[in-house]
Amino acid sequence: MYLHKENLLFLVLIVSRTRFTENDLWLANEIKKFGKKFFFIRTNLDQDLINEKNDHPKTYNETLVLDRIRENCLAHIRTVDDTANVFLISGRINYTSR
After folding, report:
1. What is the 3-state secondary structure (H, E, C) of the chain?
2. Which of 8, 27, 76, 91 makes a 20 to 30 Å CA pair with 15?
């Protein structure tokens, strides 16, 4: 069986351990130019949660912080592809099924 590179499905993962940057946006645009699909993956959320809890201990809400991070990433990545997905990953969050 012959596989031509035009027929291969490529899926690109953009992984970032900090806030969404201009480099992430540039990379997403370049991937989109080639007509390829991508997912944006945001890691190291545990540090963001620790910082938020230290900065705002009385109003800290883990779910709201994670929602805010996800929405921020989506707002940026959806300027390139309105169907793009964002995944938040951390090995240290207690409830990993979310």
Report:
1. CCCCCCCCCCEEEEEECCCCCHHHHHHHHHHHHCCCEEEEEECCHHHHHHHHHHHCCCCCCHHHHHHHHHHHHHHHHCCCCCCCEEEECCCCCCCCCC
2. 8
C-beta of residue 30 within 8 angstroms of C-beta of residue 73: no
Report residue 2 CA to chain centroid gap.
35
Place of tokens 């805010």: 68
pLDDT tens series, the chain, 98 aa = 444 555 556 778 999 998 889 999 999 999 999 888 899 999 989 889 999 999 999 999 999 999 999 999 999 999 999 988 899 988 766 654 44
What are 85's two structure tokens? 């997905």
Q: Whole-prediction pTM value?
A: 0.77
The overall average pLDDT reported for the chain is 85
